[in-house]
Design a protein that fits this description.
Strand content: 25-35%
CATH topology: 2,3-Dihydroxybiphenyl 1,2-Dioxygenase, domain 1
Number of domains: 1
Largest sheet: 4 strands, mixed
Helix content: 10-25%
Structural class: alpha+beta
Radius of gyration: 18 Å
CATH superfamily: 2,3-Dihydroxybiphenyl 1,2-Dioxygenase, domain 1
Number of strands: 10
Strand order of the largest sheet: 3-6-5-4
Shape: globular
């Protein structure tokens, strides 16, 4: 669904104001770090993202096959990796969302597009994707998010059982 121009403009202005109050400074970083550190009072990282899911059992099986920790509650399934997580809202949760719900009001599966940093080898990634039954739909070198987008990595793209786009990036 295409967002009305006014709504897109409002979101863009909100993000511009939010980022304008956030200062990021380059600094020496430990090996493997981004080379960027956030100043006090700034956005420093993602804690989690949340999207609705449709195929609960298939999603749980898929993400477990990728080797992430999966936690289940009545309203959601959370997949944990590093210090981050993705909350997948169960169908009963997002299908009955009210205007007062703390969720995106119009999100329906598939609406996720996630890029994961893969810390292992290309071979271990391919083995994990094979275990999960994921078909590679694209690949190539690209700029990642590290060091303000100046570090390149090899990406492999797949879709999860709900159709969300997953990118797995291996930095060299």
């Amino acid at each position: 669904m295409v967002q009305p121009t006014r709504q897109r403009h409002g979101r863009r202005k909100f993000l511009e104001r939010l980022v304008a109050g956030t200062t990021v400074a380059a600094s020496a970083s430990p090996a493997g770090g981004s080379g960027v550190r956030a100043q006090e009072g700034a956005i420093s990282s993602f804690d989690h993202v949340a999207v609705p899911m449709q195929n609960t059992e298939e999603m749980i099986t898929f993400y477990r096959a990728l080797g992430v920790h999966v936690m289940e509650t009545a309203g959601r399934v959370s997949v944990h990796f590093g210090d981050q997580k993705i909350n997948f809202h169960r169908p009963a949760s997002w299908q009955r969302a009210t205007p007062a719900s703390l969720r995106a009001p119009a999100a329906t599966p598939p609406c996720g597009d996630f890029c994961f940093v893969w810390s292992g080898s290309e071979e271990s990634l391919m083995a994990a994707l094979d275990r999960a039954g994921a078909e590679i739909i694209g690949s190539g070198m690209r700029d990642g998010g590290r060091a303000l987008g100046t570090v390149r990595g090899m990406s492999r793209y797949v879709r999860d059982p709900d159709g969300n786009l997953l990118e797995f990036m291996i930095y060299s």
